[in-house]
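Run log // design_07
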């Protein structure tokens, strides 16, 4: 067989199918399997959104190619939504729609970095970010986050890792896998560091719709009149609108970045899927209250998860994820996750999927399960 590229060979296998394969051996002895591997909200999309997607999918014009950076109506709707959420003026021209946020990140990496360059990525990291960089020959330079800091990264430790090949700092807040919400002052310190060292700040806020409204905007970066010179904001429609299968994400960035991004967009997606764009343009303003209701559901699930689990286990927790520390005497995370899936029907992801130094951790995406099912957690985890 001819050779594969070294960069793809060095890239990890997909995490979620690996964990699900362990569960194929589960015999059902502990009851119905509980799958907490993937970050998907376990409730359906809004019925009117589904109706509109179906209608749009049946129309001839959404069958054709659309604008490279997405349909104007959705770009305008998101610009307005982002502007309202962060209290800033965002223009339609600042928004590009992508075929999901994973692709938004992979294309962003292409725009700003070349093989041999590096991005600073707090660990534990979201595995697809690291995989996208690895595939492109770009180093994900680990910036370790500590449980005693609630997994919030430290700008001073980040600065010590910067070298002449560093192109960007990547932050994910609320975080996957820890659920950590970075305080505004930490985000601002990273923005100042990036600016001082001539780096891009990439901010993946896929989970921002699940932040508590009472806390106000998570940062004021969009209020900086110069934000377009250094900030790249990533967003996903997958979680907030429950439509991960329709593959819609977004990049909010300034005109110089958008101009370069258009090359990647044209080459890698040509245009994002069109039926869902049409329907989501309606949903962004129309389903604001529904989204707020879902935030309450997630808060209830977080409370159920917290109530079910021994507090000693929980190292961090946010609106979608619990990041557990295995008790002393338990096997390491890879073995523990395999045993839990194969023998107890509890599917979760082991820490090593999220980068170095995570051998004692498990990620539970509790967003997937109703609060009643989360009550099964102690029984399944006991004595591991
Ligand atoms: C932080 C983060 N970014 C991006 C994504 C992917 O989103 P999308 O479905 O839009 O590609 C996920 C999905 O889990 C995520 O957790």
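design_07 sequence
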């Amino acid at each position: 067989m001819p050779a594969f590229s070294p960069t793809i060979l060095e890239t990890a296998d997909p995490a979620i199918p690996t964990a699900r394969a362990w569960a194929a051996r589960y015999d059902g002895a502990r009851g119905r399997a509980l799958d907490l591997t993937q970050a998907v909200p376990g409730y359906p999309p809004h019925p009117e959104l589904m109706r509109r997607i179906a209608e749009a999918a049946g129309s001839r014009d959404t069958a054709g190619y659309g604008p490279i950076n997405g349909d104007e109506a959705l770009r305008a709707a998101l610009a307005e939504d982002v502007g309202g959420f962060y209290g800033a003026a965002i223009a339609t021209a600042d928004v590009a729609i992508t075929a999901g946020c994973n692709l938004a990140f992979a294309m962003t990496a292409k725009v700003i970095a070349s093989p041999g360059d590096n991005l600073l990525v707090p660990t534990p990291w979201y595995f697809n970010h690291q995989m996208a960089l690895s595939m492109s020959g770009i180093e994900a330079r680990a910036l370790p986050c500590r449980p005693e800091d609630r997994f919030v990264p430290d700008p001073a430790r980040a600065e010590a890792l910067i070298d002449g090949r560093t192109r960007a700092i990547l932050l994910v807040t609320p975080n996957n896998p820890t659920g950590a919400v970075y305080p505004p002052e930490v985000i601002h310190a990273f923005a100042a560091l990036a600016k001082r060292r001539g780096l891009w700040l990439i901010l993946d806020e896929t989970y921002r719709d699940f932040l508590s409204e009472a806390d106000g905007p998570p940062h004021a970066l969009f209020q900086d009149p110069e934000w377009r010179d250094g900030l790249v904001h990533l967003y996903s429609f997958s979680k907030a609108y429950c439509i991960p299968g329709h593959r819609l994400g977004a990049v909010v960035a300034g005109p110089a970045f958008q101009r370069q991004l258009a090359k990647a967009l044209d080459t890698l997606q040509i245009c994002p899927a069109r039926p869902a764009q049409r329907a989501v343009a309606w949903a962004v303003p129309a389903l604001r209250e529904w989204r707020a209701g879902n935030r309450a559901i997630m808060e209830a699930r977080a409370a159920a998860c917290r109530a079910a689990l021994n507090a000693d286990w929980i190292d961090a927790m946010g609106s979608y994820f619990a990041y557990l520390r295995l008790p002393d005497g338990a096997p390491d995370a890879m073995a523990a996750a395999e045993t839990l899936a194969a023998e107890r029907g509890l599917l979760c992801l082991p820490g090593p999927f999220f980068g170095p130094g995570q051998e004692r951790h498990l990620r539970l995406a509790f967003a997937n399960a109703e609060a009643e099912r989360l009550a099964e957690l102690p029984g399944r985890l006991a004595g591991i």
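The pocket of pyridoxal-5'-phosphate is lined by residues 39, 100-102, 126, 172, 176, 204, 206, 236, 238, 244, 249 (CB under 6 Å).
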